[in-house]
Amino acid sequence: MTSEGKSRWSRGAPALVAAYVAAVLLVDTLVAMRVRTPIDWRVFSWTTEGGFDLFKFVAWFVIPFLICLTTMDWGWIGVARWKRSDTMLLAAIALLGMLAILGIMFIPALRDYYPSLSHRTWPEKWDSMMRALFWVASWLVGWEFLHRYFLVRPFSARWPRFGWLIVPVSEGAYHLQKHWAEMLLMVAFSVALTWWTVRRKNALLPFLAHLIIEVELIAFMVLV
After folding, report:
1. Per residue in 41-69, pLDDT tens?
2. Neighbouring C-alpha atoms within 13 Å toward the C-beta of 216
3. Under a CB-based contact definition with an 8 Å cutoff, are residues 179 and 111 in contact?
4. Which residues contact 176 (CB under 8 A, 6 or more apart)?
5. Which are the contacts of 211, defined by CB distance < 8 A and separation ≥ 6?
6. Coil, strand, or helix at residue 17?
7. What pLDDT is attached to residue 82?
8. What's the rounded Cα separation, in Å, for the pair 179 and 182?
9. What's the pLDDT tens digit per position in 83-109?
10. What letters, b where the CB count within 10 A reaches 16 and e where it falls short, cover 107-132?
11. Least confidently predicted of 4-13, 41-50, 193-202
12. How many Å apart are CA 189 and CA 102, to the nearest integer?
């Protein structure tokens, strides 16, 4: 590719990446909402019997990863760029996440959305927990890679000061279908950790923080 072609690609990359992210998140939302016009969007519901969401895994992770593979900055997924204080930050996020999840008990709409499984037998709890973890594994890596690598890099490169804000906008828009409290917490989480991601050029800590919170949520449903 000529230098002029590379320059044009660099200018156009944010729009192309944003269009892809918006499309796959929209399709997933239409599937979740069981929309049947102008087509039955459930045709994209590729969930296995064990709960693994193949659509999310392929559309959110496999395809973006393959697109990025030849120019991958592997430092984004390691710990070499962490500072000593980042481990403490991760522990603090885990604690704040646990407190936020305990707040579900005081919001009836969220308690209905995340019902208690504490009345079930332990074999039933174990089956539910394993299925939930399998489901989380199918989308969490993709969600984080899609937003805090595939989407944020071209935007922060094109607009260094504020381009990274595209990620909270995307994550917030996707969560508009959720309870307002959960949506606002998600946006706050996204703003803080996307800012950290851009400063460190690293996406591992946000991924680990998100994973810890998802595991805490599953534990909450099983035990409380």
Report:
1. 999 999 998 889 999 999 999 999 999 99
2. 19
3. no
4. 183
5. 136, 140
6. helix
7. 97
8. 5
9. 999 999 999 999 999 999 999 999 999
10. eeebeeebeebeeeeeeebeebbeeb
11. 4-13
12. 17
* Contact (Cβ atoms closer than 8 angstroms) between residue 138 and residue 53: yes
Q: Which of 224, 217, 220, 213 is nearest to 96 (CA)?
A: 213
| Residue 186: both structure tokens together | 């998600």
The letter for the amino acid at 55 is: F
Determine contact, residues 104/179, Cβ cutoff 8 Å.
no
pTM score of the predicted model: 0.92
Position 195: which residue type? Answer: W
> In this structure, how many other beta carbons lie within 10 angstroms of the beta carbon of residue 183?
17
Q: Which two tokens stand for residue 202?
A: 């690293």
Distance between CA 103 and CA 99 in Å, rounded? 6
- Cα 125 to Cα 51, 52, 112, 122, distances in angstroms: 15, 18, 18, 5
Instruction: Output the CA torsion 107→108→114→118 (10° steps).
Output: 100
Cβ-based burial of 61 (10 A; exposed 0-12, middle 13-18, buried ≥19): buried
